[in-house]
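Summary for the funding panel

The consortium committed to producing paired sequence-structure records for every protein in the target list. Below we show the first two records in order, beginning with the earlier of the two.
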Amino acid sequence: MRMEKIVLEKVCWKIKATTAFQFLQLYYSLLQENLPFERRNSINFERLEAQLKACHCRIIFSKAKPSVLALSIIALEIQAQKCVELTEGVECLQKHSKDYYSTKKLL
């Protein structure tokens, strides 16, 4: 990792950390692709974004990984909306994520 950092500094690359908002956008777009056209508005992105902002105001969520936080917010919203079509999609995202067990703990 030290060598990677040295090389990146030499080529003037700046690496930015991926934020929970970026994960939220990614997961949301992946789930939208799996929905039929008439159901695409069932999950409101602005609502998800507001929930993420509310989580950032609480110190308990400051230690959570950004990907876990974003996935948990989406999973809870899908449970609240009772979107059966998306439940399988979220489970697939959880299984393919390194953060599977962390997400399960937050839920």
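The next record, for a separate protein in the list, is shown here:
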Amino acid sequence: MRWLKFILIILFCLFGIYSISMNFVDESKSFTHQSEINYPVDKVFPQFNNLQNFAAWNDFFAGKEDLTYSFFTPYEGLGSAMNFSDKKNNKLGDLFIRYSNVNRTVRYQLFDGESANPYLIDVKFVPNGQKTKLFWNIHTPKRDYLERSLNLIAEDFFVENIDKSMKNLYQLLGNKVDRDQKLASIKYDSIMVENRDGELLLGVNVSTRNTKDILFKNVIMNHGKVVNYVRSDLGKKDDEFGMPVLLTNPANLKDKEVSYFYGVPLSKRISVSDNNFSFQTLNASKVYYIYYQGNYNNRVKNIQELLKKAKKDTLRNGQLMEEFLEEPIDNQDVKLKLSLPVYR
């Protein structure tokens, strides 16, 4: 009993000392951090302004195998939102973009756990030639009296996270630059021939009105839906699935309504619980293909060139494949590889 009383007295004293020390700790804390990355701001900013991109390299999320994500439209800029959870470790939270000024500033609101008080994170981008300086301003949430000790380690936690994240982002952008250089060497508007390997696509079947204002917006929406599902629900990293492909009947391109399948290549068939998603198999085939860059609605001329080539060579054709070499973004030009399977 004496030892129990002694331990209780010690614990009571330690609790008293802790409680008194909390009087000297602020209920919230603000601090800044500066970093720099060797890429221009137009390459860096989109990685912050799109939460699907952000979650791929930020160390708070990246590499956490048990974390699952849900992303909500719009997928970039003001109003973007994501939810993350780890049921195994009872971790959950939400991240929002509350302000976005292209190539200048992004403001995030991070709710960690069930707290109603968020972290406020402002990132300012300052171009410096082919480099970008980033100024981080972080404000921790107001904490209850006995939780204020967390503010003592918050700055070290965020600084370590930022430094690791910037290394991840540098590596990611390095891979993207290599890809951009390959894209820059592409010869556009010339019909070529290749033997294309078979692929397994996971995606969605879609029907929509075929107008300039509606079709491309519909493609962008379904791109986000498919990529979000593959990344978040299936836990696939970017190097575990291929470039998005749209399949459609080229004979219906001028119809008032068009049907298409939008999916991404996977290495093997896996269990899919969402009935909105299905698999389609692309058989290996000889294809005529042409690269196109420009407004999405103007691609039809290049598709017609492929059809004319097949007809001239007295070949039948299969479904048109529109492979997106870059992520489709509203009000921006696209880069496509248009492929038409041909056979006798």
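Regarding this second record: Confidence is low (pLDDT under 50) at residues 11-25. Residues 150-184 form the longest helix (35 residues).
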